[in-house]
Amino acid sequence: MRFPEDLLYAESHEWLKVEGSRVTIGLTDYAQSQLKDIVYVDLPEVGSKFKKGDSIGVVESVKTVADVYSPATGKVTDRNLTLKDHPEFINGDPYGKGWLVKMEIQDKEELKELLSSKAYQGSLTEEL
Amino acid sequence: MQGHNRYIPHTEEDIRKMLDTLGLEKIEDLFQAIPKEYRLSNPLNLPEPLSEPDLLRHFEGLQVPMMSSFLGAGAYHHFIPAVVSHLVSRSEFSTAYTPYQPEVSQGTLQAIFEYQTLMCQLTGMEVSNASMYDGASSLAEAVLMAHRITKRKKILLSQAVHPEYRRVIQTYIDPDQQEVIPVPYQKKEGRTDERVLFGLLKEDVSAVVIQSPNFFGVVEELQPLGERIHSCGALMIAGFSEAVAYGILQPPGAMGADIVAGEGQSLGIPVSYGGPYLGIFATVGTFVRNMPGRLVGETIDLEGKRGFVLTLATREQHIRRERATSNICTNEGLCALMAAVFLSCLGKEGLKELAMMNLSKTEYAKKVISRIRGCKLNFTAPTFNEFVLRVEKNPEEILEKLRKKGVLGGLALEKFYPELDHHLLVTVTEMNKKEEIDRWAEVLEKG
Amino acid sequence: MKKIDDTGLLQGELLIFEQGGKGRKGYSLPRWDVEEVEVQNFFPPGLLRKELEGFPQLSEVDVVRHFTRLSQWNYGVDSGLYPLGSCTMKYNPKVNEEIARMSGFSKIHPYTPEELSQGILRLMFGLQGFLGEITGMDHVTLQPAAGAHGELTGMMMVRACLQARGEKRKKVLVPDTAHGTNCSTSSVASYQMIEIKSNEDGVIPPEKVNEVMDEEVAAIMVTNPNTLGLFEGHLDKIAGIVHGKGGFVYCDGANLNALMGVVKLGELGVDVVHINLHKTFSTPHGGGGPGGGPVAVKKELAPYLPIPVIERRGESYRLNDDRPHSIGKVKTFYGNFGVLIKAYAYILSMGAEGLKKASEMAVLNANYLMKRLKDYYHLPYDRPCMHECVFTDRIQERYQVSTLDIAKRLIDYGFHPPTIYFPLVVKGALMMEPTETESKESIDRFIETMIIIAKEAEEDPDLLRQAPQKVKVRRLDEVLAARRPKLKWTAPSPPSPRRGER
Question: Which option is the CATH number for C359-483: 3.40.800.20, 3.30.300.10, 3.20.20.80, 3.90.1150.10?
Fold first, then answer.
């Protein structure tokens, strides 16, 4: 499993790519391996606002449902509509074609609570 | 002596051997986990068990006599072909569980897939589920679904919807989340009063609930209603209690309904004193993930062969638990199968002919009755196989006289509609012979 | 040469829409003794449909062949042992089917005047009494159509009772072993669910209930025995804690088959319980219903029962709608009468002695099964069980074989698999409930098969991973079914002309 070093990670298994006040959010390789074949993704409308920790969408496999949590407070600026016809991108390319949403965030201080690749991997071994 | 029980195979020897394997002395030892003070020392207070012949005799004594009937109002006497009960009694269908293991349930799964297809064809909608409990609870779940989709509070509910369906809707909704606003019916025509309805249609309305044919048998004009409902962002929920009407009438799906929730009892299911019946639930493709109930989908197996499975189960209680679209688990599977067999027998031409016979017999009855002094058809709008009759005399007295002649002449409406205190709801199906209709009219005439 | 299926009785069967032909008819209507009307004279053209597009056209023989063949691919209780945990797949007596079909029951309209339907009302009143006696409760409603429907009805009655007291409690306590319907019911009834974790013994510890119980909690929803097949031994204490703060104890009665004549739930402190007639009381499952979910309550909740309530006045029975505090109705008419009558017949056939024997043998069968399999499959709770037991795939995991593989391999040996992956608190759960109608030989054969499968898992695991092989369809692609849902048949569109063609 891969955990690119240039990304930040949440304990709830989302990854963030930070570019100024813009972030791209997706699910980690660990998350997709646990969910198995993704069949459907429910993404928020562009323009919707969320607080850190809010559920912004849902990812479904045949036998499970998982919430996607917002790692920061902000507004959705873009969402990956190709996932509608190709939910399998999340399984095959979780950090690339499988991105979920892009957000404009307010408070970069909130990102300090997120984990580095190494710290996230550490938390995983604890869980296992 | 009822020492043995034909449903429990264990002999004394079997029990002994099994207890030995467990290292136990007696059967009571199996229940150690139950605190002694709660273990019953006396037998349950139930009647002595009956043998099979005595059981049958007991029930023969409880049977209710059958009479010539003009009752409808949500339960309809239709002819059920012998083939329906024969096929549905096959124990591979009736003693099977929910098809969670598809490889050994292809019979149930394919039959339900066919049922779902037939319901879409019948109602003109894009997707149907595998059944709900009955028309009323189906309609109530439609109201809950509309709230999930629109997030708005108000439900406009036509008073011409079956009174029991309306009561069930009222029971299901959470008054903190949804509010029912009644919409009256037009006194002259018997249709939902569209003037009042349009007046109430605002941005806080989540859905409008209309039944067609409605409780009075009157056919509503859904198309113009639908257009107005959609223009304010609300949903149109169309209900029905007499599915046979759609053998000749334009289905709700063709007239803009967003959700169709009705009763399928007319499709090969006995009236059986009120249940089990069949809740039909269908909607447009875009709302499929918000639908309650089971769904069967087509797929392929490892070898590329076509097969069927339960799908989109992530909406349901066993996966989504507290965020499920409904709590429904066991539904009315075997009744859905009855409907599938029934419609397979009738087919394209048969359902149409059945509907025409119902309409024709009802129109004959209306013609005969309206000639009688003191009897008048109450509503002017077209009806299917039910209509409301206004009588000068006390309706209960008239029904009593008819009962003495072995006829259940109709339903007095006062208990549901206090303003209709001189009115009877009369239902005529293909099962009412011309002589019966004539005899009933005779009694009405004699007074 | 055209290929024809050579798979014997498992041969493929087209959908009804893909067979038959124009003009075929399979129905027979009464003679036309009135004039057929011209439909256009009654309805404007916009209200008439042109045709029933796509509807099949089949002869009676076509219909019978079709559904008969379909049935042959199904497995029912009449086919063999059906050990689904918490489903109680016991034998469905055939005489009860005959009784339900009698014209004096199946052809009676629900609005038949009470004076004429006394036999039916007497039957329903009698059934209420029996169910009340068996569960140790005061009043029963027969209206709900299934267990989950009963749960909703029961929870709505609790809510109404609390509201009448002027209390608006928002929370419900639900153990982690609960059936999914308990959670979704709480949600539909607008409660917030608080989960209680079971202890290492697999039951709810009263201390945990004490921690979370307060005046905001409307009820605790328990299942007894629970979904691990274990008796909730602390239920009386838990009931005391909940009652102490003014809450109610709801019991999911799905596992009642372990307790009949042995213990009364009402005596353990239960205030409201639903009963699954299609489980404990032998009415057929039907491939997904119809069921019956009567609800039994203590007298405190009686004012809130759905209407109408069936009452006895002297020698006659009536339907009483005059109940101002009733929650209303959850279904039209009175309940799934065609199912109720079978349960009533079953109780009359069994009597007190028979029902007790049923529970005793159900528990004996499950413990025997558990004892004989524990050397081959991992048992997460190694204590005597009630009517069902739970194993896991922990031993077989070593060979990269899962619960799913074990289940599918059982199919090759002619058995329906047990419940898999439930309850959720046990990873890789295999929940087995033999029921009392299985003979020792039947269970022995199942045990021997499970032992063979355990051996296969070790020596030839591919047999499990490739299973099932001896069936009409192999493992089905559920991912495809969910990604590209195809939920009905559609007529194939005519092939579009290729470029260059006309």
Answer: 3.90.1150.10
